[in-house]
Design goal:
Number of strands: 10
Number of domains: 1
Order of helices and strands: HEEEEEEEEEHE
Radius of gyration: 20 Å
Strand order of the largest sheet: 1-2-3-4-5-8-9-10
Shape: globular
Helix content: 10-25%
Strand content: over 45%
Length: 164
C-alpha cells in the first residue's frame, strides 16, 4: 500500500470515530440511568397546581425485558408552599419495551406517602426514557393510571437524564 493510501484510510477512520462520539450519560452501569424531576401539574386540572421536584433512577436488566424504577418526589403548592409532602415510587421487575428512540417501562408501582404506604394501590405507571443521536436517553417522562391520577394528575411528569 502506498503511504498516501494509508494516510487516507487513517484520516477516514479518525473522522468516522469523531462523528459518532456522543455525550456521556451519567450511568452507574451500561443500563443504569438517573436524573431529576422539576415539574408543575396543570392548574386547570381537577387536582389543581402542584410543584413536583425530586430524583429518579432506572436499572434496565440486560436483555431480560425487565427493569427497576424509583422516584423520590417532593410535592408542594406553588406560590404558597402549602401542603408539602413526599412520595416514593418503586417499580420492580417492570416490563421493558424498546422503542425507536429509547425504552418504555410499565408496571404496578409501590407508592408511599410521607414514608407510609402503600398509597394508590392498583395504579400503574408508564416510564418513557427517550433521546436522540447525541444523548440517548436524555429525557424521562412518567404517567400514572388508576387511583394515582387523583393525586398526580393524568398528565406526564417530565424529567431529565443526568449527563457527566
Amino acid at each position: 500500500m502506498h503511504r498516501s493510501t494509508v494516510m487516507r484510510l487513517a484520516l477516514a477512520l479518525a473522522l468516522a470515530v469523531v462523528t459518532t462520539v456522543s455525550v456521556p450519560v451519567r450511568a452507574t452501569g451500561p443500563d443504569k440511568f438517573e436524573g431529576t424531576i422539576n415539574e408543575y401539574t396543570d392548574p386547570a386540572s381537577a387536582i389543581g397546581s402542584w410543584h413536583l421536584t425530586g430524583k429518579w433512577s432506572v436499572h434496565i436488566k440486560g436483555t431480560s425485558g425487565k427493569a427497576d424504577f424509583t422516584a423520590s418526589i417532593a410535592m408542594v403548592r406553588p406560590g404558597s408552599g402549602a401542603s408539602p409532602h413526599t412520595h416514593h415510587v418503586l417499580l420492580q421487575d417492570a416490563t421493558v419495551t424498546t422503542t425507536a428512540n429509547g425504552w418504555n417501562i410499565e408496571g404496578e408501582p409501590t407508592i408511599t406517602s410521607n414514608g407510609a404506604g402503600p398509597a394508590f394501590v392498583g395504579s400503574t405507571v408508564k416510564v418513557e426514557l427517550t433521546g436522540d443521536t447525541v444523548v440517548l436517553p436524555s429525557n424521562v417522562k412518567f404517567t400514572f393510571q388508576g387511583a394515582a391520577v387523583s393525586h398526580f394528575g393524568s398528565g406526564a411528569i417530565d424529567g431529565v437524564v443526568a449527563v457527566d
